[in-house]
Write a structure and sequence with these properties.
Blueprint: E1 30-37, E2 40-47, E3 50-55, E4 60-66, H1 77-80, H2 87-113, H3 119-127
Antiparallel strand pairs: 1-2, 2-3, 3-4
Length: about 140
Amino acid sequence: MIGAEFPYEVDGLSLVSPGKKRKAGQKREKIYSEEYMKGFPKVAMIQKDIKYIYHVPEGRIVEVYDLTEDDGEQNNLKIVGQFPDSYTHMEKEIQDWLISKERLRNKISKKRDQAEIDPRTLEQLKSLGYIQHEGEYDQPSHQ
């Protein structure tokens, strides 16, 4: 909104950019979200009002909901065997999304690691304990 450029590409649409306005009622083709509950990561993908929930450690879809009929997500269609032909394809799409997200994370991490810090800020960070002086903890202490 202030005209600053984003330092890397992101997966998403701007909610404020006038060049990317959507028509009233127009939906995105796919929507992804992530959740980490009790250490178990899950990814949800919604496509054409069908929500697929992918359990990352198992590498498979574990829940499927038709949001037009069941917006409270009470009836897991995977249990009753609906949409069986789509599971493999959707699992692959979610896996591809996870891979592209990891690539973006690595790209961002490389840019972050290449950031230049002015000497004054570097000294302040060292004095606050956020950065160690080189060799400071390499030697065992003798008491």
